[in-house]
Design a protein that fits this description.
By secondary structure, the chain is of the alpha+beta class. The chain has a domain of about 80 residues. The radius of gyration is 17 Å and the shape is globular.
Length: about 130
């Protein structure tokens, strides 16, 4: 096992729970889960939507939801092209709300620095 793979395996990745009130049934709000966005996820999203970080489009948000949404058991919720088409027909406020929750798993560098110590920035200061 390479070092990067070993280090990645050490991290504890908790899933984020997202409640979607607009998709509620008699049992309450619909619940989906997502894991934190990875470099790979962002790279794949940027291949299809180059300006996603500066100007996220609804199509990019739908792709993010299709890519990351999971059931309680960890299975992908949306798997087909038909799911993507159906999500594109959803209200923009619902899609953007879910995508915003998923994007909020990206911690700003300043927050990481405050909560995890200065090891990352100390290294970057030495390099720059």
């Amino acid at each position: 096992m390479g070092l990067a793979k070993e280090l990645r395996a050490r991290r504890k990745q908790s899933r984020r729970k997202i409640e979607v009130a607009e998709w509620a049934d008699d049992n309450g709000a619909f619940v989906l889960y997502c894991r934190p966005l990875t470099c790979y996820d962002l790279n794949e999203l940027q291949k299809r939507h180059p300006q996603v970080m500066q100007n996220p489009s609804i199509a990019a948000m739908v792709d993010l939801i299709v890519m990351k949404a999971e059931s309680k058991d960890g299975d992908k919720l949306f798997t087909s092209g038909e799911d993507k088409v159906d999500l594109m027909g959803e209200e923009t406020t619902v899609v953007s709300g879910i995508a915003n929750e998923m994007f909020s798993t990206i911690d700003p560098f300043e927050d990481v620095e405050k909560t995890e110590g200065r090891s990352v920035s100390d290294e970057s200061h030495r390099l720059g």
